[in-house]
Amino acid sequence: MADSTSSQTSLNPPAPLPESDSESNAQPQVIRETIESLAVAFILALLFKAFVADAFIIPTGSMAPTLMGAHKDLQCPECGFSYQSGASSEFNNVTGVPNGSVVTETICPLCRSIDKLDKTNVANHRTFPGDRILVSKLAYALGEPQRWQVIVFKFIEDAKTNYIKRCIGLPGESIKIWHGDIFTKKSSEPADRFTIARKPPHVLNAMLQSVADSNHLSKPVVTGQIPDNWQPSVASPAASPAASPVASWSIKIDSDAKSSKSKWNASITNAPSGQPNLLRYRHRVLSPEDRRLLAQDQPTAIARISDPKAFRLITDFTAYNVNIGDNRLNENHIAHIPEFFSKIDGDHWVGDLAGEWTFSTAPATQLVRLLLVEGGVEFICDIDLKSGVATAQALYQGQKLDVFESSKGPSGSLQGSTAIRSGSKHVVRYANVDDSLRLWVDGKLIDWGNGAYNIPAALPTYKHLPTQLDDNPLDAAPLGFGVAGGSCNVDRARVFRDVYYIATNNSRFIDTPNHLQIDDKSYQAVVGNDPWDNPRHEVVFDLGEDDYFPMGDNTAASSDARLWAAHGQPGRLMIGRAVMVFWPHPWNWNRIPFVPNFQRMGLIR
Questions:
Q1: DSSP classification of residue 169
Q2: What is the CATH number of domain 228-307+351-497?
Q3: In terms of pTM, does the model score above 0.90?
Q4: What is the side-by-side order of every strand in the sheet holding 114-116?
Q5: Residues in contact with 93: Cβ distance below 8 Å, sequence separation at least 6, in sequence order
Q6: Which residues contact residue 169 at a Cβ distance below 8 angstroms, ignoring those fewer than 6 apart?
Protein backbone atom coordinates (compact mmCIF):
# COMPACT_ATOMS: atom_id res chain seq x y z
CA MET A 1 0.00 0.00 0.00
CA ALA A 2 2.86 2.34 0.86
CA ASP A 3 4.39 1.85 -2.59
CA SER A 4 1.06 2.51 -4.10
CA THR A 5 0.56 5.62 -2.14
CA SER A 6 4.03 6.85 -2.87
CA SER A 7 3.33 6.37 -6.53
CA GLN A 8 0.06 8.20 -6.23
CA THR A 9 1.79 11.04 -4.42
CA SER A 10 4.50 11.35 -7.07
CA LEU A 11 1.83 11.92 -9.81
CA ASN A 12 0.36 14.94 -8.15
CA PRO A 13 0.88 18.10 -10.28
CA PRO A 14 3.28 20.74 -9.02
CA ALA A 15 1.98 23.93 -7.61
CA PRO A 16 1.05 26.47 -10.38
CA LEU A 17 3.41 29.30 -11.13
CA PRO A 18 2.35 32.80 -10.44
CA GLU A 19 0.11 34.20 -13.21
CA SER A 20 2.62 36.78 -14.43
CA ASP A 21 5.36 34.15 -14.94
CA SER A 22 2.98 31.85 -16.96
CA GLU A 23 2.08 34.62 -19.42
CA SER A 24 5.67 35.66 -19.91
CA ASN A 25 6.64 32.08 -20.93
CA ALA A 26 3.63 31.59 -23.24
CA GLN A 27 4.17 34.73 -25.35
CA PRO A 28 7.59 33.71 -26.76
CA GLN A 29 6.17 30.24 -27.49
CA VAL A 30 3.26 31.68 -29.55
CA ILE A 31 5.54 34.05 -31.47
CA ARG A 32 7.95 31.20 -32.23
CA GLU A 33 5.17 28.92 -33.50
CA THR A 34 3.80 31.73 -35.70
CA ILE A 35 7.21 32.42 -37.23
CA GLU A 36 7.77 28.69 -37.84
CA SER A 37 4.35 28.34 -39.49
CA LEU A 38 4.99 31.31 -41.77
CA ALA A 39 8.43 30.00 -42.65
CA VAL A 40 7.06 26.54 -43.49
CA ALA A 41 4.25 28.08 -45.57
CA PHE A 42 6.76 30.29 -47.40
CA ILE A 43 9.05 27.34 -48.10
CA LEU A 44 6.12 25.24 -49.34
CA ALA A 45 5.00 28.12 -51.57
CA LEU A 46 8.50 28.42 -53.02
CA LEU A 47 8.67 24.66 -53.58
CA PHE A 48 5.23 24.72 -55.21
CA LYS A 49 6.26 27.65 -57.40
CA ALA A 50 9.59 26.05 -58.31
CA PHE A 51 8.48 22.49 -59.01
CA VAL A 52 4.68 22.27 -59.34
CA ALA A 53 2.98 25.36 -60.78
CA ASP A 54 3.49 29.06 -61.29
CA ALA A 55 1.40 32.03 -62.38
CA PHE A 56 2.29 34.22 -65.35
CA ILE A 57 0.74 37.22 -67.06
CA ILE A 58 0.64 37.41 -70.87
CA PRO A 59 2.36 40.61 -72.07
CA THR A 60 1.77 40.50 -75.85
CA GLY A 61 -0.74 39.20 -78.37
CA SER A 62 1.38 36.57 -80.15
CA MET A 63 -1.00 33.84 -78.92
CA ALA A 64 -4.23 35.73 -79.67
CA PRO A 65 -7.03 34.90 -79.78
CA THR A 66 -6.20 31.87 -77.59
CA LEU A 67 -4.46 34.08 -75.01
CA MET A 68 -4.59 37.86 -74.76
CA GLY A 69 -1.83 40.31 -74.02
CA ALA A 70 -2.63 43.95 -73.22
CA HIS A 71 -5.83 44.46 -75.21
CA LYS A 72 -9.18 46.14 -75.72
CA ASP A 73 -12.23 43.99 -74.95
CA LEU A 74 -15.02 45.39 -77.10
CA GLN A 75 -18.49 44.92 -78.49
CA CYS A 76 -19.07 46.20 -82.00
CA PRO A 77 -21.74 48.94 -81.90
CA GLU A 78 -22.93 47.99 -85.40
CA CYS A 79 -23.33 44.20 -85.30
CA GLY A 80 -22.99 43.52 -81.57
CA PHE A 81 -20.15 40.99 -81.92
CA SER A 82 -17.72 40.80 -78.99
CA TYR A 83 -14.06 40.83 -79.95
CA GLN A 84 -10.58 41.80 -78.77
CA SER A 85 -8.05 44.19 -80.28
CA GLY A 86 -4.41 44.28 -79.28
CA ALA A 87 -3.02 47.22 -77.32
CA SER A 88 0.56 46.09 -76.70
CA SER A 89 1.65 49.02 -78.87
CA GLU A 90 0.81 51.29 -75.95
CA PHE A 91 3.75 49.86 -73.95
CA ASN A 92 7.49 49.53 -74.36
CA ASN A 93 8.32 45.98 -75.49
CA VAL A 94 11.20 45.65 -73.02
CA THR A 95 10.18 47.61 -69.92
CA GLY A 96 6.39 47.41 -70.22
CA VAL A 97 6.17 51.12 -69.42
CA PRO A 98 3.47 53.14 -71.29
CA ASN A 99 5.01 54.88 -74.30
CA GLY A 100 2.39 57.56 -74.86
CA SER A 101 0.58 55.78 -77.71
CA VAL A 102 -3.14 55.14 -77.21
CA VAL A 103 -5.30 52.87 -79.34
CA THR A 104 -8.29 54.96 -80.39
CA GLU A 105 -9.93 52.99 -83.19
CA THR A 106 -10.34 49.29 -83.94
CA ILE A 107 -12.10 47.18 -86.54
CA CYS A 108 -14.77 44.50 -86.08
CA PRO A 109 -13.67 41.09 -87.42
CA LEU A 110 -17.17 40.30 -88.74
CA CYS A 111 -18.84 43.41 -90.16
CA ARG A 112 -15.50 45.31 -90.52
CA SER A 113 -16.93 48.55 -89.19
CA ILE A 114 -14.37 50.96 -87.73
CA ASP A 115 -15.14 51.38 -84.04
CA LYS A 116 -14.07 54.64 -82.38
CA LEU A 117 -13.14 54.35 -78.71
CA ASP A 118 -13.96 56.79 -75.92
CA LYS A 119 -11.78 55.79 -73.00
CA THR A 120 -12.59 59.00 -71.14
CA ASN A 121 -16.31 58.35 -70.83
CA VAL A 122 -16.49 54.57 -71.32
CA ALA A 123 -14.46 52.72 -68.71
CA ASN A 124 -14.44 49.45 -70.66
CA HIS A 125 -12.80 51.17 -73.63
CA ARG A 126 -9.62 51.44 -71.60
CA THR A 127 -6.80 48.94 -72.04
CA PHE A 128 -7.04 45.70 -70.08
CA PRO A 129 -3.98 43.75 -68.89
CA GLY A 130 -3.08 40.38 -70.37
CA ASP A 131 -4.52 37.07 -69.24
CA ARG A 132 -3.18 35.60 -66.02
CA ILE A 133 -2.42 31.94 -66.56
CA LEU A 134 -1.38 28.95 -64.46
CA VAL A 135 1.59 26.95 -65.74
CA SER A 136 2.19 23.35 -64.68
CA LYS A 137 5.92 22.80 -64.14
CA LEU A 138 5.28 19.25 -63.06
CA ALA A 139 3.97 18.38 -66.54
CA TYR A 140 7.41 18.43 -68.14
CA ALA A 141 9.17 17.05 -65.08
CA LEU A 142 7.14 13.86 -65.61
CA GLY A 143 6.88 13.90 -69.43
CA GLU A 144 7.85 15.63 -72.65
CA PRO A 145 6.02 18.46 -74.45
CA GLN A 146 3.55 17.23 -77.05
CA ARG A 147 2.55 18.77 -80.35
CA TRP A 148 -0.20 21.44 -80.10
CA GLN A 149 0.33 22.00 -76.36
CA VAL A 150 0.78 25.60 -75.20
CA ILE A 151 4.24 25.80 -73.62
CA VAL A 152 6.20 28.31 -71.53
CA PHE A 153 9.99 28.41 -71.86
CA LYS A 154 13.12 30.48 -71.42
CA PHE A 155 13.95 32.19 -74.71
CA ILE A 156 17.08 30.68 -76.24
CA GLU A 157 18.48 34.09 -77.27
CA ASP A 158 17.77 35.70 -73.87
CA ALA A 159 17.34 33.24 -71.00
CA LYS A 160 15.98 36.01 -68.75
CA THR A 161 12.85 36.25 -70.91
CA ASN A 162 9.90 33.85 -70.66
CA TYR A 163 8.00 33.07 -73.86
CA ILE A 164 4.67 31.38 -74.38
CA LYS A 165 3.85 29.67 -77.69
CA ARG A 166 2.27 26.53 -79.07
CA CYS A 167 4.50 23.50 -79.61
CA ILE A 168 4.42 22.73 -83.35
CA GLY A 169 7.54 20.65 -83.98
CA LEU A 170 9.22 17.90 -81.94
CA PRO A 171 12.90 16.90 -81.57
CA GLY A 172 14.53 15.32 -84.61
CA GLU A 173 11.82 16.46 -87.02
CA SER A 174 11.75 18.54 -90.15
CA ILE A 175 8.89 21.06 -90.19
CA LYS A 176 7.35 22.28 -93.43
CA ILE A 177 4.87 25.16 -93.56
CA TRP A 178 2.87 25.08 -96.78
CA HIS A 179 -0.36 26.93 -97.63
CA GLY A 180 -1.03 27.62 -93.96
CA ASP A 181 -0.69 24.01 -92.74
CA ILE A 182 2.04 22.17 -90.83
CA PHE A 183 3.76 19.10 -92.27
CA THR A 184 6.31 16.94 -90.44
CA LYS A 185 8.74 14.10 -91.01
CA LYS A 186 11.83 12.67 -89.38
CA SER A 187 14.87 14.70 -90.44
CA SER A 188 16.55 11.55 -91.75
CA GLU A 189 13.64 10.69 -94.08
CA PRO A 190 13.40 11.83 -97.71
CA ALA A 191 11.45 14.96 -98.63
CA ASP A 192 8.46 13.03 -99.99
CA ARG A 193 7.71 11.63 -96.51
CA PHE A 194 6.20 14.87 -95.20
CA THR A 195 2.71 14.27 -93.76
CA ILE A 196 0.26 16.86 -92.49
CA ALA A 197 0.08 17.40 -88.72
CA ARG A 198 -3.56 17.19 -87.64
CA LYS A 199 -4.91 18.92 -84.55
CA PRO A 200 -6.87 16.84 -82.05
CA PRO A 201 -10.60 17.73 -82.11
CA HIS A 202 -10.53 19.66 -78.81
CA VAL A 203 -7.57 21.76 -80.00
CA LEU A 204 -9.16 22.29 -83.42
CA ASN A 205 -12.34 23.67 -81.86
CA ALA A 206 -10.37 25.96 -79.54
CA MET A 207 -8.34 27.44 -82.41
CA LEU A 208 -11.19 28.11 -84.87
CA GLN A 209 -11.74 31.82 -85.49
CA SER A 210 -15.04 33.50 -86.34
CA VAL A 211 -15.57 34.70 -89.90
CA ALA A 212 -19.34 35.26 -90.03
CA ASP A 213 -22.33 34.87 -87.74
CA SER A 214 -25.98 35.38 -88.70
CA ASN A 215 -26.61 36.64 -85.15
CA HIS A 216 -24.28 39.56 -85.89
CA LEU A 217 -25.06 41.23 -89.21
CA SER A 218 -23.70 44.47 -90.60
CA LYS A 219 -26.01 47.44 -90.85
CA PRO A 220 -26.09 47.43 -94.71
CA VAL A 221 -27.32 43.82 -94.60
CA VAL A 222 -29.97 44.53 -91.97
CA THR A 223 -31.28 47.56 -93.90
CA GLY A 224 -31.27 45.65 -97.19
CA GLN A 225 -28.61 47.76 -98.95
CA ILE A 226 -26.61 44.64 -99.70
CA PRO A 227 -27.74 40.99 -99.75
CA ASP A 228 -27.12 38.57 -96.94
CA ASN A 229 -24.07 36.33 -97.34
CA TRP A 230 -26.29 33.25 -97.33
CA GLN A 231 -28.19 32.93 -100.61
CA PRO A 232 -30.17 30.13 -102.31
CA SER A 233 -28.18 28.18 -104.86
CA VAL A 234 -29.59 27.02 -108.19
CA ALA A 235 -30.17 23.31 -108.53
CA SER A 236 -27.21 21.27 -109.70
CA PRO A 237 -27.13 20.65 -113.47
CA ALA A 238 -27.00 16.94 -112.66
CA ALA A 239 -30.43 17.14 -111.02
CA SER A 240 -33.41 16.25 -113.15
CA PRO A 241 -35.66 19.22 -113.98
CA ALA A 242 -38.76 19.46 -111.80
CA ALA A 243 -42.19 19.49 -113.34
CA SER A 244 -43.36 22.15 -110.93
CA PRO A 245 -41.59 25.23 -109.50
CA VAL A 246 -38.77 24.14 -107.18
CA ALA A 247 -39.02 25.16 -103.55
CA SER A 248 -36.35 27.65 -102.54
CA TRP A 249 -34.84 29.07 -99.41
CA SER A 250 -36.28 32.28 -98.00
CA ILE A 251 -34.14 34.65 -95.88
CA LYS A 252 -35.85 36.82 -93.27
CA ILE A 253 -34.13 39.46 -91.17
CA ASP A 254 -36.01 41.28 -88.40
CA SER A 255 -34.15 44.24 -86.92
CA ASP A 256 -34.57 46.05 -83.63
CA ALA A 257 -34.42 49.80 -84.28
CA LYS A 258 -33.37 50.48 -80.68
CA SER A 259 -30.34 48.22 -80.69
CA SER A 260 -27.79 46.62 -82.98
CA LYS A 261 -29.45 43.23 -82.62
CA SER A 262 -31.24 41.50 -85.48
CA LYS A 263 -32.99 38.15 -85.86
CA TRP A 264 -32.03 36.06 -88.87
CA ASN A 265 -33.89 33.06 -90.20
CA ALA A 266 -33.65 30.91 -93.30
CA SER A 267 -36.45 28.51 -94.18
CA ILE A 268 -37.58 26.19 -96.93
CA THR A 269 -40.93 24.46 -97.28
CA ASN A 270 -41.69 21.23 -99.11
CA ALA A 271 -38.28 20.79 -100.70
CA PRO A 272 -38.53 17.93 -103.21
CA SER A 273 -36.81 14.58 -102.82
CA GLY A 274 -33.56 13.90 -104.61
CA GLN A 275 -31.01 16.66 -105.06
CA PRO A 276 -30.97 18.85 -101.89
CA ASN A 277 -31.77 22.55 -102.19
CA LEU A 278 -28.71 24.39 -100.90
CA LEU A 279 -28.16 27.65 -99.09
CA ARG A 280 -24.65 28.83 -100.06
CA TYR A 281 -22.32 31.24 -98.26
CA ARG A 282 -20.51 33.95 -100.23
CA HIS A 283 -17.97 35.92 -98.28
CA ARG A 284 -18.25 39.72 -98.53
CA VAL A 285 -16.14 42.42 -96.91
CA LEU A 286 -17.14 46.09 -96.97
CA SER A 287 -14.21 48.48 -97.03
CA PRO A 288 -14.49 52.04 -95.67
CA GLU A 289 -14.70 53.17 -99.30
CA ASP A 290 -17.61 50.78 -99.96
CA ARG A 291 -19.45 52.20 -96.98
CA ARG A 292 -18.84 55.74 -98.19
CA LEU A 293 -20.27 54.92 -101.62
CA LEU A 294 -23.32 53.28 -100.09
CA ALA A 295 -23.90 56.36 -97.93
CA GLN A 296 -23.69 58.58 -101.03
CA ASP A 297 -26.23 56.36 -102.81
CA GLN A 298 -24.15 56.06 -105.98
CA PRO A 299 -26.02 53.64 -108.32
CA THR A 300 -23.00 52.16 -110.11
CA ALA A 301 -21.16 51.41 -106.88
CA ILE A 302 -24.29 50.08 -105.20
CA ALA A 303 -24.91 47.72 -108.12
CA ARG A 304 -21.39 46.34 -107.80
CA ILE A 305 -21.44 46.03 -104.03
CA SER A 306 -24.96 44.58 -103.84
CA ASP A 307 -24.46 41.95 -106.56
CA PRO A 308 -25.63 38.68 -104.91
CA LYS A 309 -22.87 36.80 -106.74
CA ALA A 310 -20.12 39.12 -105.53
CA PHE A 311 -17.66 37.60 -103.09
CA ARG A 312 -14.15 37.63 -101.71
CA LEU A 313 -12.02 34.75 -100.56
CA ILE A 314 -11.93 34.00 -96.84
CA THR A 315 -8.53 35.13 -95.61
CA ASP A 316 -6.27 35.15 -92.57
CA PHE A 317 -7.54 38.58 -91.48
CA THR A 318 -6.95 39.01 -87.72
CA ALA A 319 -8.76 41.96 -86.16
CA TYR A 320 -6.58 41.72 -83.06
CA ASN A 321 -3.67 43.12 -85.09
CA VAL A 322 -5.56 46.05 -86.62
CA ASN A 323 -5.86 49.27 -84.66
CA ILE A 324 -4.87 52.92 -84.86
CA GLY A 325 -3.25 54.97 -82.13
CA ASP A 326 -3.87 58.69 -81.60
CA ASN A 327 -0.17 59.44 -82.02
CA ARG A 328 -0.65 58.74 -85.75
CA LEU A 329 -3.76 60.86 -86.24
CA ASN A 330 -4.08 64.45 -87.34
CA GLU A 331 -7.16 66.50 -88.09
CA ASN A 332 -8.21 63.97 -90.74
CA HIS A 333 -10.38 61.02 -89.83
CA ILE A 334 -8.93 57.53 -89.76
CA ALA A 335 -10.64 56.71 -93.08
CA HIS A 336 -8.04 58.90 -94.81
CA ILE A 337 -5.08 56.86 -93.56
CA PRO A 338 -4.00 54.82 -96.62
CA GLU A 339 -2.26 52.01 -94.75
CA PHE A 340 -5.45 51.29 -92.84
CA PHE A 341 -7.28 50.50 -96.08
CA SER A 342 -5.03 47.53 -96.76
CA LYS A 343 -5.84 46.12 -93.35
CA ILE A 344 -9.54 45.43 -93.90
CA ASP A 345 -8.67 41.96 -95.13
CA GLY A 346 -5.88 39.41 -94.86
CA ASP A 347 -3.11 38.49 -97.26
CA HIS A 348 -3.63 34.73 -97.61
CA TRP A 349 -6.51 32.57 -98.75
CA VAL A 350 -7.69 30.16 -96.03
CA GLY A 351 -9.26 26.95 -97.32
CA ASP A 352 -9.57 25.18 -93.95
CA LEU A 353 -13.10 26.13 -92.88
CA ALA A 354 -15.91 25.04 -90.58
CA GLY A 355 -19.64 25.74 -90.60
CA GLU A 356 -22.12 25.53 -87.76
CA TRP A 357 -25.89 25.52 -88.20
CA THR A 358 -28.72 25.56 -85.67
CA PHE A 359 -31.72 24.06 -87.46
CA SER A 360 -35.01 22.21 -87.03
CA THR A 361 -36.74 19.98 -89.57
CA ALA A 362 -40.38 19.10 -90.07
CA PRO A 363 -41.51 15.49 -89.48
CA ALA A 364 -40.77 13.13 -92.37
CA THR A 365 -38.03 15.37 -93.83
CA GLN A 366 -35.65 13.00 -95.56
CA LEU A 367 -32.14 14.42 -95.67
CA VAL A 368 -29.83 17.22 -94.54
CA ARG A 369 -26.73 18.09 -96.58
CA LEU A 370 -23.62 19.92 -95.35
CA LEU A 371 -21.05 21.22 -97.83
CA LEU A 372 -17.49 22.51 -97.53
CA VAL A 373 -15.29 23.36 -100.54
CA GLU A 374 -11.51 23.67 -100.61
CA GLY A 375 -9.42 24.05 -103.73
CA GLY A 376 -12.21 22.93 -106.05
CA VAL A 377 -12.93 19.74 -104.06
CA GLU A 378 -16.47 19.43 -102.65
CA PHE A 379 -16.70 17.70 -99.28
CA ILE A 380 -20.33 16.64 -98.94
CA CYS A 381 -21.88 15.21 -95.77
CA ASP A 382 -25.40 13.78 -96.12
CA ILE A 383 -27.39 12.93 -92.98
CA ASP A 384 -30.28 10.50 -93.40
CA LEU A 385 -32.98 11.81 -91.06
CA LYS A 386 -34.67 8.42 -90.78
CA SER A 387 -31.63 6.45 -89.61
CA GLY A 388 -29.39 9.30 -88.41
CA VAL A 389 -26.47 7.94 -90.45
CA ALA A 390 -24.05 10.60 -91.71
CA THR A 391 -22.07 9.84 -94.88
CA ALA A 392 -19.24 12.06 -96.14
CA GLN A 393 -17.62 11.92 -99.56
CA ALA A 394 -15.30 14.04 -101.72
CA LEU A 395 -16.12 15.12 -105.29
CA TYR A 396 -13.81 16.67 -107.85
CA GLN A 397 -15.35 17.89 -111.11
CA GLY A 398 -18.37 15.75 -110.32
CA GLN A 399 -16.36 12.55 -109.78
CA LYS A 400 -16.24 10.73 -106.46
CA LEU A 401 -12.71 10.34 -105.06
CA ASP A 402 -11.30 7.44 -103.04
CA VAL A 403 -9.24 9.62 -100.72
CA PHE A 404 -10.21 8.75 -97.14
CA GLU A 405 -7.62 6.83 -95.14
CA SER A 406 -8.65 3.48 -93.69
CA SER A 407 -7.01 0.24 -92.53
CA LYS A 408 -8.06 -1.40 -95.80
CA GLY A 409 -6.64 1.34 -98.03
CA PRO A 410 -8.20 4.42 -99.65
CA SER A 411 -11.97 4.64 -99.19
CA GLY A 412 -14.63 6.66 -100.98
CA SER A 413 -16.62 7.67 -97.91
CA LEU A 414 -16.81 8.19 -94.16
CA GLN A 415 -19.80 7.02 -92.16
CA GLY A 416 -21.01 7.56 -88.59
CA SER A 417 -24.19 7.43 -86.51
CA THR A 418 -25.83 10.61 -85.21
CA ALA A 419 -28.83 11.47 -83.04
CA ILE A 420 -30.34 13.67 -85.77
CA ARG A 421 -33.88 12.74 -86.79
CA SER A 422 -36.61 14.59 -88.64
CA GLY A 423 -38.97 16.68 -86.55
CA SER A 424 -36.28 17.77 -84.09
CA LYS A 425 -33.82 20.61 -83.50
CA HIS A 426 -30.04 20.24 -83.52
CA VAL A 427 -26.75 22.12 -83.75
CA VAL A 428 -24.21 20.64 -86.18
CA ARG A 429 -20.63 21.71 -86.77
CA TYR A 430 -18.83 20.41 -89.86
CA ALA A 431 -15.10 21.12 -90.22
CA ASN A 432 -12.53 20.56 -92.93
CA VAL A 433 -9.21 21.31 -91.23
CA ASP A 434 -5.74 19.80 -91.72
CA ASP A 435 -6.96 17.48 -94.50
CA SER A 436 -9.47 15.89 -92.16
CA LEU A 437 -13.28 16.04 -91.88
CA ARG A 438 -14.91 16.29 -88.45
CA LEU A 439 -18.59 16.38 -87.51
CA TRP A 440 -20.14 17.41 -84.19
CA VAL A 441 -23.84 17.06 -83.36
CA ASP A 442 -25.08 18.99 -80.32
CA GLY A 443 -21.49 19.30 -79.13
CA LYS A 444 -20.68 15.58 -79.49
CA LEU A 445 -17.97 14.46 -81.91
CA ILE A 446 -19.28 11.82 -84.32
CA ASP A 447 -17.12 8.71 -84.56
CA TRP A 448 -16.16 7.99 -88.16
CA GLY A 449 -12.42 7.64 -87.58
CA ASN A 450 -10.07 10.59 -87.80
CA GLY A 451 -11.64 11.75 -91.08
CA ALA A 452 -8.21 11.96 -92.75
CA TYR A 453 -7.96 12.24 -96.53
CA ASN A 454 -5.23 12.61 -99.14
CA ILE A 455 -6.22 14.41 -102.35
CA PRO A 456 -2.81 14.29 -104.16
CA ALA A 457 -2.77 10.49 -103.80
CA ALA A 458 -5.89 10.30 -105.97
CA LEU A 459 -5.09 13.32 -108.17
CA PRO A 460 -1.30 13.51 -108.76
CA THR A 461 -1.62 16.73 -110.81
CA TYR A 462 -3.91 18.43 -108.28
CA LYS A 463 -3.00 21.97 -107.25
CA HIS A 464 -4.28 23.41 -104.01
CA LEU A 465 -5.80 26.53 -105.60
CA PRO A 466 -9.20 28.22 -105.18
CA THR A 467 -11.41 27.40 -108.14
CA GLN A 468 -14.66 28.50 -109.74
CA LEU A 469 -16.49 26.97 -112.71
CA ASP A 470 -19.19 28.44 -114.93
CA ASP A 471 -21.78 25.96 -113.64
CA ASN A 472 -20.52 25.66 -110.04
CA PRO A 473 -19.24 28.44 -107.72
CA LEU A 474 -17.02 26.04 -105.72
CA ASP A 475 -14.58 28.21 -103.69
CA ALA A 476 -16.63 31.32 -104.51
CA ALA A 477 -19.30 29.88 -102.17
CA PRO A 478 -17.32 27.46 -99.97
CA LEU A 479 -20.04 26.52 -97.46
CA GLY A 480 -23.53 25.16 -97.97
CA PHE A 481 -26.50 23.78 -96.05
CA GLY A 482 -29.45 22.06 -97.66
CA VAL A 483 -32.39 19.68 -97.24
CA ALA A 484 -34.31 17.27 -99.44
CA GLY A 485 -37.80 15.84 -99.09
CA GLY A 486 -39.28 18.17 -96.49
CA SER A 487 -39.11 21.50 -94.67
CA CYS A 488 -36.46 23.14 -92.51
CA ASN A 489 -35.75 26.27 -90.46
CA VAL A 490 -32.20 27.50 -89.82
CA ASP A 491 -32.04 29.89 -86.87
CA ARG A 492 -28.31 30.52 -86.90
CA ALA A 493 -25.45 30.00 -89.34
CA ARG A 494 -21.80 30.52 -88.41
CA VAL A 495 -18.55 30.35 -90.37
CA PHE A 496 -15.11 29.70 -88.89
CA ARG A 497 -11.59 29.41 -90.25
CA ASP A 498 -8.49 27.62 -89.04
CA VAL A 499 -5.25 29.36 -88.05
CA TYR A 500 -3.16 30.06 -91.16
CA TYR A 501 0.55 29.51 -90.47
CA ILE A 502 2.48 31.97 -92.62
CA ALA A 503 5.49 30.48 -94.39
CA THR A 504 8.42 32.75 -93.64
CA ASN A 505 11.93 32.53 -92.24
CA ASN A 506 12.50 36.25 -91.74
CA SER A 507 10.64 39.25 -90.39
CA ARG A 508 8.52 39.61 -93.54
CA PHE A 509 5.21 37.86 -92.85
CA ILE A 510 3.50 38.42 -96.21
CA ASP A 511 4.69 35.62 -98.45
CA THR A 512 2.62 36.52 -101.54
CA PRO A 513 1.06 39.68 -102.97
CA ASN A 514 -2.57 40.30 -102.11
CA HIS A 515 -4.59 39.07 -105.10
CA LEU A 516 -7.85 38.82 -103.15
CA GLN A 517 -9.55 41.97 -104.38
CA ILE A 518 -12.10 41.03 -107.05
CA ASP A 519 -12.92 44.09 -109.14
CA ASP A 520 -13.68 43.92 -112.83
CA LYS A 521 -11.48 40.87 -113.32
CA SER A 522 -12.92 37.38 -113.49
CA TYR A 523 -12.36 35.20 -110.45
CA GLN A 524 -10.41 32.62 -112.41
CA ALA A 525 -8.12 35.25 -113.95
CA VAL A 526 -7.18 36.57 -110.52
CA VAL A 527 -6.63 33.41 -108.48
CA GLY A 528 -5.94 30.71 -111.06
CA ASN A 529 -2.46 31.85 -112.05
CA ASP A 530 1.10 31.83 -110.75
CA PRO A 531 0.76 33.99 -107.59
CA TRP A 532 -1.24 31.24 -105.87
CA ASP A 533 1.24 28.53 -106.87
CA ASN A 534 4.38 30.39 -105.86
CA PRO A 535 7.01 28.33 -103.98
CA ARG A 536 7.28 31.14 -101.42
CA HIS A 537 4.24 29.49 -99.84
CA GLU A 538 6.65 26.82 -98.53
CA VAL A 539 9.47 26.91 -95.99
CA VAL A 540 11.26 24.02 -94.24
CA PHE A 541 13.06 23.90 -90.87
CA ASP A 542 15.24 21.07 -89.50
CA LEU A 543 15.31 20.53 -85.74
CA GLY A 544 18.04 19.11 -83.53
CA GLU A 545 17.58 16.05 -81.34
CA ASP A 546 16.60 18.19 -78.32
CA ASP A 547 14.85 21.04 -80.13
CA TYR A 548 11.19 21.99 -80.23
CA PHE A 549 9.56 24.35 -82.73
CA PRO A 550 7.26 26.87 -80.98
CA MET A 551 4.90 29.16 -82.93
CA GLY A 552 2.28 31.70 -81.92
CA ASP A 553 -1.39 31.27 -82.85
CA ASN A 554 -1.29 34.88 -84.09
CA THR A 555 1.20 33.96 -86.80
CA ALA A 556 1.13 37.36 -88.51
CA ALA A 557 2.37 39.04 -85.32
CA SER A 558 4.46 36.44 -83.54
CA SER A 559 8.20 36.36 -83.01
CA ASP A 560 8.75 32.61 -82.90
CA ALA A 561 10.99 29.82 -84.18
CA ARG A 562 10.44 30.86 -87.80
CA LEU A 563 12.42 34.04 -87.11
CA TRP A 564 14.99 32.85 -84.60
CA ALA A 565 18.54 32.24 -85.74
CA ALA A 566 18.56 28.79 -84.11
CA HIS A 567 15.11 27.85 -85.57
CA GLY A 568 14.42 25.74 -82.50
CA GLN A 569 14.01 25.82 -78.73
CA PRO A 570 16.07 23.43 -76.54
CA GLY A 571 14.05 21.18 -74.26
CA ARG A 572 16.30 22.06 -71.31
CA LEU A 573 14.81 25.57 -71.30
CA MET A 574 11.22 24.40 -70.96
CA ILE A 575 9.40 25.79 -67.92
CA GLY A 576 6.05 24.06 -68.17
CA ARG A 577 2.68 23.65 -69.85
CA ALA A 578 0.08 26.43 -69.75
CA VAL A 579 -3.03 24.77 -68.33
CA MET A 580 -5.63 27.45 -67.59
CA VAL A 581 -6.61 31.10 -67.58
CA PHE A 582 -7.42 31.61 -63.92
CA TRP A 583 -7.91 35.38 -63.84
CA PRO A 584 -8.93 37.28 -66.98
CA HIS A 585 -9.20 41.02 -66.65
CA PRO A 586 -11.97 42.46 -64.43
CA TRP A 587 -14.69 44.57 -66.02
CA ASN A 588 -14.72 48.26 -65.11
CA TRP A 589 -18.11 48.31 -63.44
CA ASN A 590 -18.64 51.16 -61.01
CA ARG A 591 -21.18 49.42 -58.80
CA ILE A 592 -19.50 46.00 -58.64
CA PRO A 593 -15.72 46.43 -58.95
CA PHE A 594 -13.24 43.65 -59.78
CA VAL A 595 -15.73 41.32 -61.48
CA PRO A 596 -13.61 39.10 -63.76
CA ASN A 597 -14.50 38.20 -67.31
CA PHE A 598 -15.78 34.75 -66.35
CA GLN A 599 -16.28 33.71 -69.99
CA ARG A 600 -12.52 33.61 -70.52
CA MET A 601 -11.80 31.46 -67.47
CA GLY A 602 -11.03 27.87 -68.31
CA LEU A 603 -8.53 25.32 -69.56
CA ILE A 604 -6.08 26.28 -72.29
CA ARG A 605 -6.37 24.02 -75.33
A1: E
A2: 2.60.120.200
A3: no
A4: 114-116, 103-107, 323-325
A5: 60
A6: 147, 175, 182, 184, 541, 543, 547, 548, 549, 561, 568
